[in-house]
UniProtKB/TrEMBL annotation:
Species, as recorded: Actinopolymorpha pittospori
Keyword annotations from UniProtKB, A to Z: ATP-binding, Nucleotide-binding
Signal sequence segment: none
Domain ABC transporter: residue ranges: 14-258
Domain of life the protein comes from: Bacteria
Molecular function GO labels: ATP binding; ATP hydrolysis activity
InterPro entries, sorted: AAA+_ATPase, ABC_transporter-like_ATP-bd, ABC_transporter-like_CS, P-loop_NTPase
Protein name: Peptide/nickel transport system ATP-binding protein
Length: 270
């Protein structure tokens, strides 16, 4: 399938070509991601949407270079990053940050929020002390939390939604070029979710950030993204500008996803 792109002529920030990931062998092999190609332009918000098991998280992990592809290539700003290792891979992880569905697993259980955020900030930017504290507090305020409420808490003392917001605040502080948000708002209630989606929109504008948003909920895709890529059983079955995919879906699978969202415009606040 041709690489879908919204910015013909300009070099994409991310270019995935034929990305493939197979788990297992022989009769038990699962093609979790099967020959998927796409681009992300600078400051674009692109959503990957699909049902559970369609391969979204595997694709996210490939883009994050947390998993090795079985086939295909990945480029960042024209540079082949498919096989980066060691120090180069760590430097890639400064450019590409993630917020996951279950942020509990990404927390060190023995770090308070202050230590978690402070450590990330020092590693990414070298900032500490009072300036670091100010940056942490500001990032937390961006996601509707106050430093006084959460900085001295341990992960188990936070709700799922608070943990998700702390991870989004962490990603904000690191100022990556690309944010991969995998079901990053799944634990938030409707009004908070809309709020966080707006924060993500601001980030792209104010911090020149590119966002790959991953969700099973095509309603959220509609709210947040410039383009939508639809995944089904590891394959990209449809892609295009959000309005086009939502209002003129070409693939039967996309129509089915849309049929599950009868009141698309209200869905975000349901
Ligand atoms: N480590 C693994 N080993 C074996 N199979 C895996 C592994 N990770 C994922 N899979 C399989 O790959 C397919 C895609 O899984 P993936 O988690 O990427 O889907 P998803 O669309 O993100 O689903 P969900 O929305 O439920 O998280 C599934 O069939 C899954 O069982």
């Amino acid at each position: 399938m041709n690489a879908p792109s919204s910015a013909p002529g300009s070099q994409p920030l991310v270019e995935a070509k034929g990305l493939t990931r197979v788990f297992g062998h022989g009769a038990n092999a699962v093609r979790a991601v099967d020959d998927v190609s796409f681009t992300l332009g600078r400051q674009e918000v692109v959503t990957i949407v699909g049902e559970s098991g369609s391969g979204k998280s595997t694709l996210a992990r490939l883009v994050l270079r947390l998993l090795e592809p079985t086939g295909g290539t990945l480029h960042l700003a024209g540079r082949d990053v498919t096989a980066l290792k060691g120090r180069e891979l760590r430097s890639y992880w400064r450019d590409v940050q993630a917020v996951f569905q279950d942020p509990f697993s990404s927390f060190n259980q023995f770090f308070t929020v202050r230590r978690l955020l402070g450590r990330s900030l020092r590693l990414a930017t070298g900032t500490g002390g009072d300036q670091g504290e100010t940056m942490m507090t500001q990032a937390l305020e961006h996601v509707g939390l106050t430093g006084a409420d959460v900085l001295d808490k341990w992960p188990h003392q936070l709700s799922g939604g608070q943990r998700q917001r702390v991870m989004i605040a962490r990603a904000l502080m690191m100022q990556p070029r690309i944010l991969v948000a995998d079901e990053a708002t799944s634990m938030l209630d409707a009004s908070l979710r809309a709020n966080i989606l707006n924060v993500l929109g601001d980030l792209r504008r104010d911090h020149d950030m590119t966002i790959l948003f991953i969700t099973h909920d095509i309603g959220q895709a509609c709210y947040v993204s410039d383009r939508v890529l639809v995944m089904c059983q590891g394959e990209l079955v449809e892609h295009g500008p959000t309005d086009q995919v939502i209002f003129d879906p070409q693939h039967e699978y996309t129509r089915r996803l849309l049929a599950d969202v009868p009141r698309l415009h209200e869905n975000i606040l349901d």
